Amino acid sequence: MLEIKNLVKIYRGASVPAVNDITFTVGEGEIFGFIGPNGAGKSTTIKCICGISGFNGGSILLDGKDVRNIDVKKQIGYVSDNHVLFENLTGIEFINFMCDMYDVDSSLRKERLEKYLSIFKLEDKINSPIKSYSHGMKQKINIIGAIIHEPKLWVLDEPLTGLDPLSSCKFNFCF
Predict the structure, then answer these.
(1) Do residues 130 and 138 make contact, with C-beta atoms less than 8 angstroms apart?
(2) Predicted pLDDT at 149
(3) What is the pLDDT of residue 135?
(4) Which of 20, 51, 73 is the last residue of a domain?
(5) Residue 4 — very low, low, confident or very high, per pLDDT cuts 50/70/90?
(6) Is residue 78 part of a domain?
(7) Do 87 and 130 contact (CB within 8 A), yes or no?
(8) Residue 27 shares a structural domain with residue 6
(9) Per-residue confidence (pLDDT) for residue 82, from 0 to 100
(10) What is the CATH number of the domain that holds 114?
(11) Residue 126 and which of 59, 75, 98, 141 are 20 to 30 A apart at CA?
(12) Can you tell me the distance from the alpha carbon of 139 to that of 110, in angstroms, rounded to the nearest whole number?
């Protein structure tokens, strides 16, 4: 499913690559994680996989297709290690924006939204501005936005940061 070959990422002005010749494969249904110290290249690799950051060498393929292709990017759900939200929007406006970005059919939106709002207990806040959300609630709406289109590949960079223990456990049921 995900195949990374000889990935190299060098930031402009850096004397040492942030990622140097990484190769691995993740099969369908597998859960794969990076463990390492700060600065080891974990988040950089994730950003390359998602197409947020370009790379200098190697290849990243999802089902044999280059992740730099926009249609391939639409098959990836990404939760960053910090909130990437439009805080002046309400939760429902943000989710609808994400559905529009990922071409989620309007007939599927309501069912999926109800499911995830129930899991994360956000039913009462979905119409409130995101800027009024707590840190944990922002992370929950970020997760919903990343998986509402039911992507083939979930890429999660510290997705449980800021979540309460109960929500962290419920997140596991989304898998």
Answers:
(1) yes
(2) 93
(3) 87
(4) 73
(5) very high
(6) no
(7) yes
(8) yes
(9) 73
(10) 3.40.50.300
(11) 75
(12) 20
Q: Looking at the 3D structure of the chain, how many domains does it have?
A: 2
Q: Which tokens go with 53?
A: 């950051």
Residue-wise DSSP of the chain: -EEEEEEEE--TT-SS-SEEEEEEEE-TT--------TTSSHHHHHHHHHTSS--SEEEEEETTEETTSHHHHTTEEEE-SS----TTSBHHHHHHHHHHHTT--HHHHHHHHHHHHHHHT-TTTTTSBGGGS-HHHHHHHHHHHHHTT--SEEEESSTTTT--HHHHHHHHHH-
**Residues 76-130: pLDDT tens digits?**
998 887 766 788 999 999 999 999 999 999 889 999 999 999 999 999 999 999 9
**Residue 175 or residue 101, greater confidence:** 101
Instruction: Judge if 114 and 34 occupy the same domain.
Output: no
In a domain, 61, yes or no: yes
Strands 19-26 and 57-62: unpaired
- Write the single-letter amino acid at 20: N
Q: What is the pLDDT of residues 30-44, one digit of tens each?
A: 888 888 888 889 889
pLDDT band, residue 52 (cuts 50/70/90): confident
C-alpha 168/C-alpha 121 separation (Å) is 12
| Residue range of the domain that includes 48 | 1-73
Amino acid at 174: C
